[in-house]
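User: Continuing from earlier, I have the next pair ready.

Assistant: Great, send them over.

User: Here they are, in order.

Assistant: Folding the first of the pair now:
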Amino acid sequence: MEWPDDLHGRGSLGRRSAAHTRCCSRETLQKRLPFLRWLPRYSLLWLQLDVIAGLTVGLTVVPQALAYAEVAGLPVQFGLYSSFMGCFIYCLLGTSKDVTLGPTAIMSLLVSVYTSGDPSLAILLAFISGCIQLAMGILHLGFLLDFISYPVIKAFTSAASVTIGFSQVKNLLGLQDIPRQFILQVYQTFRKLPDTRPGDAILGLLTIALLLVLKLMKDHSPGIYRGMSGWYRFFHLIVWVMTTARNAFVVVAAGLVAYSFQVMGSQPFILTGKTAEGLPHFQLPPFSETTVNGTVTFSEMMQDIGSGLLIIPLMGLVESIAIARAFASQNNYRIDPNQELLAIGLTNFLGSFLSSYPVTGSFGRTSLNSQTGVCSPAGGVLTGLLVLLSLGCLTPLFFYIPKAALAAVIICAVAPMFDLGFCRTLWKVKRLDLLPFLITFLFSFWEIQYGILAGVMVSAIILCYPMTRPQIKVSDSGGLILQPMSGLSFPATEFLRDSVYENALTVSPPRSVTLDLSHVNVLDYTVVMGLGDLLHEFESQGLSLTFSGLQAHVLQTLLSADLKGFQYCHSLEEAESLYHEELEGSTQPLLHSVTRTSS
């Protein structure tokens, strides 16, 4: 029952109560806590499939986390510190059944660029990124990500795959003292090729070959069919586990080989070495840092990170939401981008209290999650528990993992990201989009952030250029008619005036014009003032500038400006009739019937 507003003030109270009810309604709670939607429908079949998917992804995330920490320039345990928080948070807040959050190759590369391998800066960057992402989610700013075009993202990922892959060549070959900057890295790697350690090179190349063979086996293994023998099913399961968790398999195998050499008293490989044991301690992110040169303040740490404070959270959101949208489309469900922002933001925010560096959605692990038939985000809980188990029990064993094996895992993980075949598609669809693609790709080898910024700027120029130079159709049947084919905003003001001058006032003799705005659905103040100047110029030369095809809100805008001499026709036919009446010298009756003046 609704109360009248004047009944002892109860109307406003009723509105506040209604707003409170909507805020705390079941629909709102389900939107903010998506697990409330799928949990009541959870079944035993879902549990079985989620357990299989969670274990499979967990066996993949552990070796990848160790490897990606190397890419970030951090001790390997930080990869695991960054791998479990997203599993639990996304189960509660995520809107995709497939997405897994954790360290990725691209995010690890960006962290390496902006923190130079300083764990304190990496943890602080996760905290700041989480705050920014949470704020964007709360303020519903997810639409800002739409301004980063797909060619820019594709070029960035292709360049990152080359950068990341080549950065691991030094570990693959056992080379030392290789700089981080890509150009210098290439030069120094080739210069130091004679210093290659045979043990690391052989192990690394064999690991890559084994990973490729296992991937081929997975892609071409026959399926299970009815009537298949029990032994065949058993061997099929073994092959499926080995090929699906191939990263874990090769890392364990390489570790056993390295341990065998250690027992025999020799070590031909460079090992990961001692890592911190146990779970990370819950503590505040480092807002200051003590070094041998003194204390580094919070503001100095922020300055050290620089543009990474903006680029890292934005690229994390772009990568995660792009993955979520792709798998939602593939598996026929919808996601909520702003809710995804909240999920990844809270993951980074809380993860920073447990020594995590920034994380995002992983395409490879999300794909694996989907392929193994995950039914809900609950599969990530088992993945997170497996990571915690590894941290609690297996960290002493990480000592024996050869760096060459981790390098092989990274190279095989990023190789599919390199896709220059995309250029062929762009050439066929829209060649102009090759420009931001190539600029982003090439600039990314100089500095990753410059590649992204250059690509976004070029895309913005391509996007804005039609606004500054809208297509204007000129016709001369029954009078001179100029028809803009799109909306008019302030960058197009001078172009519109120049077009009118060129076609009507600089010719001999000057001519009256009908400006057909039937395709214009928006005008801003600068354009309106420009049209006022044109009306004054036409009036001073004894000519008329007539408007036609005005939509209601556009007409209201022009009437509100109170332009002197403003007159309009309802249609082009009326404008043509007006033109013929002018030629015959008897326009006054027609003007009164078909025109209006902003009196």
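And the other member of the pair:
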Amino acid sequence: MVTPINSPIHAPKPEGGGGSDPSPGGGAADPTLEMLWKNGYVPGFGGAAPGSGGGSSGGDPAGAAPPPPGHAAFTVDLATLYTAVSAGATEASHVVDAYNALKTRVDAVVASGTFWGQQATNFRAWYDNSGIAGGVGPIRREGDFPDHGVQQAAAQFAPVINPELTTALRSVADAVELYGVYLARLDQAGQAYAAADYGSILPEVAPRPKS
């Protein structure tokens, strides 16, 4: 069973409910990655990887990838591929613009130092009795006073939430970049196929001279 990861914002309190709230912790540890398909072997649909007990690898004991099976001829519709890449680039452009606008807002929040209420105040109104002696009566006074409770909570909250915002923003940026790489590779595949297809065209044979 996997041990649950404690959130840096909502960390559980010590058992028994005693003590003060725990201080914010760090983010989750980076995961350890492992390839499910090893040594370049990718099983066919319904197949099994070498050593899994689901069939033979078809290769040598070292686990080298078996030769690919034969297949029928295929064609590439470059017009459809180009349309897909162009549409994807248009959508990616919209996402980039939205991301940049969001990044501007997040940067402003992190740099402000006051967004979460670090300088919160309370509006108060009261009556000053100093005017009673002169026959004026109570004088209304009003003003803003620091809200120390909110300011203290905000000072503890900001160092926790600001890194969460930037981490989420980075995740969005990574996803957009990955999609951009995918589109670029589609474009490269189309360009390579188009160049190969164009280079395979045989030139026209000159007509034979007539006697």
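Worth noting for the second one:
The CA atoms of residues 36 and 146 lie 58 Å apart. Residues 7-26, 44-59 have pLDDT under 50 and may be disordered.
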